[in-house]
Amino acid sequence: MIDTMYMTASSGIQRTRAVFRCLSIALLMLPCIASPVLCASVTENASAVTLSGGSTTVDLDKNRNGAVSSLRHSSGAEFSAGTSAPLFTLTFLDDNGIAVTLASDAAITFSAVIDSKASVRFDYVFTNIPLTVSCTASAASNDGLIRWRLSASFDGAYTLTDVRFPVIALRSPVGTSGDDDKFVAASPKGGIRKPSSLATNGRWEFQQPGTLAAQFGYYYDDAAGFFMAAYDGAGYPKQLEFRRPHHAEMTFKHLCHARRSYALAYDIVTGVLGGGTDWRDAADIYKSWALTQPWCAVTYERRTDIPSWMKAGAASVQFDCTMGGPSNRPWLSTPEKIEQWVSNYWKRYFPPDVPLIVGIWGWEKVAPWVGGGDYFPVYPSDERFASLTSNLRAMGCHIEMRPSGYNWTLTYQKLPGGGFYYDSSDRFDAQIKTHAIRELNGEVRIRNPSWIKGGEMASLCPGEPWTQDWWNNDVAAPLARMGSEIVEIDQNVGGRFAFCYARGHTHPPGPGRWMTDVFMKQLVSMRTSIAAVERDALVGFEEPNELFNGIAGLQDYRDCEFPDEWASVFNYLYHEYLPTFQASAGGNVVWMAHGFADGQMPRIGPSSKPLFGEKPAYHALLTRWVELYHGEGRPYLLFGRMLHPPKLSCASMQSGKRTVPAVMHNAFRAPDGSDAVIAVNASEEKQMATVSWNGKERIIELERGGALLIRD
Description:
With about 700 residues, this protein is of the alpha+beta class. About 15% of the residues lie in helices and about 35% in strands. Strands 9, 10, 11, 12, 15, 17, 18, 21 and 22 form a 9-stranded antiparallel beta sheet that branches. The protein is globular.
């Protein structure tokens, strides 16, 4: 039962006061959000408190208990939809499990206290639940952003489960038309979303850790943009939300399981950018903060835990399985075909010094992605698999394997006559259940994803030392002994796993920072476990998360899976810190061209044509990609920092339902400070393009499968 209470109270404050702090400096890093002379100020009158920082000004309505009533750029562009949303909502569970949501509007008393440092504190008292809340908003004097914090104290009979703060109602459309409105979140499967396509009361949600690889979102049109980010270096669970009730609404939902008190441990920052910006401008603001965090301590080129062969500019191939049934594994059912592909294609057409990562999927004993207690012996047998990896290693390859995360398959493939093809539920109940993730009601969390084919799956809790030891000793180390140097945790997207409310585990119940801590511990201990067998051990997981950049050795990426216009936000932010590869690239030439121009590691799903002496359709493009990534382009495509790309004019073409440029491009800065532009022909025909860069126009011609590295 949800009891949502909106009540209006007036503070009766009738004073006006202003405090100003100015820094007469040019903010070269943030030209779009701050004026050359940055001033932070707070003013107050009978109806509102106004905060200004650089080009951003926000009015907080005292008649609506601090709700945002105006959010504007110094140019006059207004983003706020008015006071149609409370400043915060808090959701509690009482001891009977009944949910109660209180909004800032419901406070019985409300007061505003102006600080001498360009900030305001709002204090709230509620009686529906014995609750006091304090919110602060401050105008920064160094970056033009508005910073937000919240704390609460409440009766011990209630548990706080989530805090939505700050909630900001935004105009939709931003200007006179919604046709140019866009929203971008730092999601690996994300891109440029069209808010006008979102149904009334629809929403987009991105979890961190999880599908939010970096903690910001940007809502903008051609005239201005609204930036919101969480400056959280510790990894507290949260969710970025973009809703469309009638207007637009943006907030962070802070997830917790708190008793008696709660304090937001990091700043939420907001700002308004001027015209002519895109999502990279918002990413630049976020990166100026991210560079101060542990995950940006050492660039990939300087990391000492990365083997030299990986820094040489490796390529990778993924020998996939299909999901048709237990034995439907077209490559691995005949391992000799994999060896033949490497021998007849890779070794024949590609330079001998280019390392090749061979990803092998579908090796699990029972069926692809059926994991937990019966991974071994592997498919088709331990002996044949060991022979395969040994022969591949002898050919200079490096083996990559991806066990199915913390999932434990209870039953798989329901049979027409009853029962299951595979059933481990008795063993689970007798030996494993105590270590499983528990729901809020204390029951084991059970799922039935499509690949289990009518069966059921539980998940083990990585907050349990038993689970971490099981993963390291019973999964990762045996795979290393089978020849794998690279082990990646699959199906825990962005390092996320389900909230565990178990009372008998070694972690606090419910969501918390402990989740990030134990996943980091898992990655570190897993690498140690593998390295005891394979010196050049590398670890990773499904889809990137900035929090773990410094321990991951390579990273599965999925930006091409977004159905509309791509926006490679994670790569733009962190290209020089961690190489990515398109996990589901297959042989799609357009996807490959995008990955090439995006500075991703060459990655393909193999064609069977080389088994018959034929070259695949992607051969020319792959050859050029490998050549540049490993050779002349390596300082840029592997180690370089991504820059705003220059203007490039070319023809367009259709790729599925999308229109894409026939020539894809990006710009990179190498560690030595030199810049380069990469242009890649994504089409099946010769293409001409014009690149406007550094004050010059260059007309380039690219053959089918061609790519050009342009340097001054």
